Amino acid sequence: MKKKLMIFGAAAAILLGGISVPAAGDIGKAVQAAPKAVSAKDKDQIAKKFNENRAYQTIHHLSETIGPRVTGTDQEKKSAQYIAKQMKKSGLKVSKQTFSIPDRLEGTLTVNGNKVAARPAAGSAPTASEGLTAPLYEAGLGLPGDFTADAKGKIAVILRGELTFYEKAKNAADAGAAGVIIYNNIDSLVPLTPNLSGNQIDIPVVGIKKEDGEKLLTEREATLQLKAFTNQTSQNVIGVRKPKGVKNPEIVYVTSHYDSVPDAPGANDNASGTSAVLELARLMKHVPADKEIRFITFGAEEIGLVGSRYYVGHLSKREIERSAANFNLDMVATNWENASQLYINTPDGSANLVWQSSRAAQAKLGKDVLYLNQGGSSDHVPFHEAGIDSANYIWREPGTGALEPWYHTPFDTIEHISKDRLKTAGQIAGTAIYDLVKKEK
Question: What is the pTM of this model?
Answer without folding.
Answer: 0.84
